[in-house]
Every structure is written in structure tokens, then in C-alpha cells.
Amino acid sequence: MSNCCTTNSEQACPVAEDAPPVCPVCGMKGQTVSVLTVKSLVREHTRVSPTADYKFCRSPECDVVYFSTDAVFRKPDVKIRVGLKERQDPIPLCYCFDYTREDIRRDIERLGQTDIPQRIKAEINAGFCACEVKNPSGKCCLGEVTKAAQEETALPGSSPDRCIAGIGQQL
Question: What is the pLDDT of residues 99-114, one digit of tens each?
Fold first, then answer.
């Protein structure tokens, strides 16, 4: 679908940089996101201006998801749950392949490790990534998934010999 999971900056989707730099509600610096991402995920997509420069608010406490100089879209305006803004399961991590934090937790409890990051990598390598239209941040989820796996592995009561399969990290 897109090259959102590539590390080659020349292949990444171009996005204008003229949006207000900080969220109008919480003041956190916004992350640039494409109009395609916003239009794909807001309920009233007709409110999305094709010429606006949108930012994604990464603050977990703020209910603003997207903002520009002429619009603000909050959690209820978005079709899906925004994982970093959720505290109750299911907390989405991977929007392309439907993995949640609970999936990682379940793997670690049952097997002592998770190979979800490796499964996602395989899907990306096979060309099945659609983060630009499925992930609210418009970016690849793999970093967030790996971070969540590390956090779940390090929870109190976790065995120190648990690891993230294929990542090569002993925690």
C-alpha cells in the first residue's frame, strides 16, 4: 500500500510542515501525519481538508488525536481506538495485523516470550503493511509493539529469563 515501514527517507510519504506545532489542548508538540491517514480514520471524513497540514497528538492524557489550523479531531471523532490514548483492554498496538497489548501479555504468560514483533516484521517484508491508512500515527507500529513487548516482559513477577523472540534481548 505504502512505504510507511521503510527506513529509506526518500521513499517515505511527503507531508507538508505548516500545521501548528503544538496541540491546542495539551500543548504537546504534534507529529506530522498525512491527510490520507486523517481522512481514512475520522468518522466525518468530509470535514478533512485536503489542503490542511495535520498533526497527531501523542499525549496519552489528551483526547485530541489530530489537529490543524482549521480543525481538531478528538477520540470520539476517530473510527478506531487509539492505543496510546487507551488504558483498558483491548489496547491496539498493530492496526494492520490486529495485535493488542493483551496478545503480547498472553504470549508472555503462556510461553515466557512473544514472537509478535517477528510476525509483524515478516508481514512488512511480504509487503502487507498499510500503516498509513490504518495506524492513527500514520507510521509503522513495530517500534511501539517492541516497546510494549519489553514492558510486558519486565513487569513484576516476570521471570528474568523471558525474552522477546527474535529480538535477541534477554530481559
Answer: 999 999 999 999 999 9
Measured distance between the N- and C-terminal CA atoms of the chain, rounded to whole angstroms = 35
Confidence (pTM): 0.81
Q: Are the beta carbons of 49 and 71 closer than 8 angstroms? A: yes
**Cα–chain-centroid distance for residue 163?**
22
Q: Between the CA of residue 143 and those of 11, 117, 118, 148, 160, what are the distances in Å?
A: 19, 9, 12, 9, 22
C-alpha cell recorded at residue 38: 486523517
Tell me whether residue 19 is exposed, middle or buried, using C-beta atoms within 10 angstroms of its C-beta: 0 to 12, 13 to 18, 19 or more: buried
Q: Are residues 26 and 58 in contact, defined by beta-carbon separation less than 8 angstroms?
A: no
Residue 10: all three cell numbers together: 526518500
- Mean pLDDT is lowest, of 32-41, 47-56, 158-167, for 158-167
Which amino acid type is present at position 113?
Q
